[in-house]
Design a protein that fits this description.
Blueprint (H helix, E strand, L loop, with lengths): L1 H73 L3 H15 L4 H14 L2 H8 L10 H4 L11 H11 L8 E3 L5 E3 H12 L7 E6 L5 H9 L4 E7 L2 H9 L1 E2 L2 E2 L3 E4 L5 H5 L4 E7 L9 H10 E12 L5 E3 L4 E3 L2 H10 L2 E10 L5 E9 L1
Parallel strand pairs: 3-4, 3-8, 4-7, 8-9
Antiparallel strand pairs: 1-2, 5-6, 9-13, 10-11, 12-13
Helix pairs in contact: 1-2, 1-3, 2-3, 3-4, 7-8
Length: 356
């Protein structure tokens, strides 16, 4: 009897222990199953963070390549700029309209209007200057829109003044800025003290510097340009008289009346600063009004066989006969003309005029 009780007690303990293990196992499974949603939530969060980090990295790579492309463009390295923008488009952000916008500008500066137009089709609202419209038919406009011309000048600013210097067929140096000033000095009757001179579109002060170098006359010269960097440079040039420019004015060259105001001048220079205009009638009238009687207007422009927009020069080029006719319509008397040929790609014509 006692033996049977021992067996029963032992079996009861074993069953009780087994039941506890089963309950613990079920409890552990329940806890594990209840934690599965949290596991997936945490995993999803980690995946989202990872994807977000990768998107930021790709975005940064896109922006980095865009900035590098702009840097190359503004330094005149058009090919390198195109490579950067195409890399950004191909590997990082194929549908980014900003990349297409800058590619459009690169091809425009290269004179490839077909590829420029194709890129600008995808630029959407980033083409604020409406370059896509301009390149469809630039010969139909009388004046390049100021927003486009400002960017062209900004991009070309670092190309320097090399285009004004060359060797002729006799290996004699051609220095157009110096010869431009000498052409004026050859034709002016006298330079009395206090002569009022305007260098309209003074750029980096070439004309003012050579005038200071070539004459001892006591004159007062004002430089006007639309770019602050040019004005700052011109303001600080020193020459024989001290500072080359007595006054500098920051003003758009497309707005002559605002730049000149009511002041009258004895001499007005325009050295390769107006090639964004096809028809000069209104501008020549404004220059004529700004001159004192017997005042001189000396202008130099890129030359061509006919007046036309030149995609390679990114400016208008001019038939000298067209310019002469417009000067005469403005009542100027042309007293001298000089032409420079710098080879196949560059030619310029200067006119010395007097207000009679």
């Amino acid at each position: 009897m006692a033996r049977n009780q021992i067996i029963i007690s032992t079996m009861s303990n074993i069953l009780s222990m087994l039941l506890r293990h089963i309950l613990n196992f079920i409890s552990n499974i329940s806890d594990y199953l209840s934690n599965i949603p949290e596991f997936f939530i945490n995993s999803r969060k980690k995946i989202d963070i990872f994807l977000h980090d990768q998107l930021i990295k790709f975005k940064n790579l896109t922006e980095t390549n865009i900035e590098l492309g702009k840097h190359h463009l503004y330094n005149g390295n058009i090919k390198d700029a195109i490579i950067r923008f195409r890399l950004a488009k191909m590997f990082f952000d194929q549908d980014n309209p900003e990349i297409d916008y800058w590619l459009g500008w690169c091809y425009f500066m290269k004179g490839d209007y077909l590829l420029a137009s194709e890129s600008l089709k995808h630029a959407k609202n980033t083409d604020e200057e409406n370059l896509a419209s301009f390149i469809q038919n630039p010969e139909e406009v009388d004046q390049v829109p100021s927003a486009i011309w400002d960017r062209v000048r900004t991009i070309k600013m670092l190309e320097g003044n090399q285009k004004y210097y060359a060797q002729n067929i006799y290996n004699k140096p051609i220095e157009i800025p110096l010869e431009f000033v000498e052409l004026f000095l050859k034709n002016i009757k006298e330079m009395p003290p206090g002569l009022q001179i305007l260098d309209f579109g003074c750029q980096n002060g070439l004309v003012g510097s050579f005038l200071d170098y070539k004459t001892d006359a006591q004159y007062y010269i004002t430089g006007v340009d639309e770019f602050e960097i040019c004005i700052e440079y011109a303001r600080n040039i020193r020459g024989e008289r001290g500072f080359v420019y007595d006054q500098t004015i920051l003003s758009p060259v497309s707005d002559i009346k605002n730049a000149i105001g009511q002041k009258k001048y004895d001499v007005i220079f325009s050295f390769d600063s107006m090639s964004f205009i096809k028809n000069f009638s209104r501008y020549f009238d404004d220059f004529y009004t700004a001159l004192n009687n017997e005042g001189y207007f000396v202008i130099m422009l890129p030359a061509g066989r006919r007046t036309i927009w030149d995609p390679k020069k990114i400016s208008f080029i001019y038939d000298g006969n067209d310019i002469a006719d417009q000067l005469k319509l403005a009542k100027f008397d042309i007293i001298d003309i000089k032409e420079w040929s710098m080879g196949k790609s560059e030619a310029y014509t200067a006119f010395v005029c007097i207000k009679s």
